[in-house]
Amino acid sequence: MYLSSLAPELLLNIMSSLDANDLAQLVQTCRYLQNTGNKILRQEVDADTLNFVLGLQRPYVRGWDYSSVRRGSVMFDVSFTIIDAYVESRSKPRVSTLYFASPAIFDILADQITKRDKRIVDGKFRIGGEKSNLTEDRRLPIPINTLVLDRGCTDYILLALKKYSHVHPASEFSITTLSTDFSLSRHDVSTFFDTRKLTKLSLGFPVAFWEYDYSMGFPNSEASQHAHFALNKNLLRDIRTLKDLLLKVSNLEVLSLRPQVSLLRAIQPLLVLPPALDELGQAVEGLTKLQTLKISEYLFHPAFFLPVPKTVKKLQYKKVNKLSQEWWTRFAKAPLTNVESLSVRSDGAKIGSGCIFQKIEKGFNIEDIEIRSLKFFICQGAENPCLPKDLVECINRRNTGLEQSISS
Q: Which residues form the F-box domain (predicted)?
């Protein structure tokens, strides 16, 4: 028997007996149930919440298969944890996590908050251009009915979430994790969220090229060429946008930066790094609650070492074969006072494809290292010639009783 053949009165009775988790499973597979469920939920929400939900239902492009969606669309995903306040008062609260992004997720979210007997915490908001960037756990499948939004329509959802984020306290609703794969300058996320509630921030963003500023004249020597190599406007804007964002996320505990670096052009060394990078470093040092810092590839320039706040205990670097000798020198001199876990991983690229300078640096040593607080150390690609030859030796000499995993 098809559900659509049931009498509306009977179907409404069935729907009224379902809780949020039941609806969450059903709305993904049955459009008829979804539409019926939406009507019931809307009868239960107050005017403010209803306006919020309606604000999310502005025009969007929906695709059942991401590959079939027209170019220029993006993936949109929201997940959150529902905690039953009644059960929470006992010894073992019941926590349910929903991983999907159908239109009805916002109705369910609004319903749970309005009832006031449940709290929605650990909210996760993801925007990205690729499926693989939408979930940190790659084992979790992206639902077939994940929303695919036209870039021009994304602002409507962000504006609606902004209102909701500011109206409800963190104890009732909070987006604690924000992941995006947009250009930093395209969306200032602090405009759309109460960033004081953010505790986890994961940013993936394309990096503009370093380009020679010919307004300063043509270089007549290699030294002058290096001195005149300047930031282009897009790159400088991205650096400042990231700095401004980090100044507003004072409660951040986990920060992951994933710049998308292109190797189509060689990167020139700079004799002096631009002041904008120093300002970015100062913003990161101001994150006094940060405990985990993850960086993939290099951040804006291979020689720029991002300062690590004293509160950080877990430090992770990926694709380190794209970093310069100058970066490693600065890393070795950084005290990293409270870092207990250090992970250093290369991407396996060899000389010529992994090292990004025109003049390849290889076979160098750092001689010594300042960090002395390590308990765990992971080094993947220790024999990659783009890494210091004595990195593992220096780590072991300064950190006794170290639990480590070293691979070539």
A: 1-44
Alpha-carbon span 214 to 230, nearest angstrom = 9
Give residue-wise pLDDT tens across range 205-250.
777 766 555 555 555 554 444 444 555 677 888 888 899 989 998 9
> From residue 124, how far is each of 14, 51, 81, 127, 325 by CA, in Å?
30, 22, 9, 10, 37
- Bridge-based pairing state of the strands 95-99 and 118-128: unpaired
| 262 CB-contact burial (10 Å; exposed 0-12 / middle 13-18 / buried 19+) | exposed
The Cα–Cα gap between 186 and 182 comes to 7
Q: Tell me the two tokens of residue 94.
A: 């019941």
Give the other-Cβ count within 10 Å of 156's Cβ. 16
Find residue 29's DSSP bridge partners.
none
Helix (H) or strand (E) holding 304: none
Q: How many other C-beta atoms are found inside a 10 Å radius of the C-beta of residue 91?
A: 6
3-state DSSP call for residue 260? strand
Secondary structure of residue 115 in the 3-state scheme:
helix
Give long-range contacts, CB 8 A cutoff, 24+ apart: 390-397: 390/365, 390/366, 391/328, 391/344, 391/366, 394/332, 394/366, 394/367, 394/368, 394/369, 395/342, 395/369, 395/371, 397/368
Per the CB < 8 A criterion, the answer to whether 145 and 197 are in contact is no
What angle separates helix 47-56 from helix 154-167, to the nearest 10 degrees?
160
pTM above 0.70, yes or no: no
Q: In angstroms, what CA-CA distances link 236 with 38, 207, 229, 250, 274? A: 46, 10, 13, 23, 9
**Helices within 30-153 (DSSP H only):** 31-44, 47-56, 85-88, 104-115
E strand spans, 129-199: 147-150, 173-180
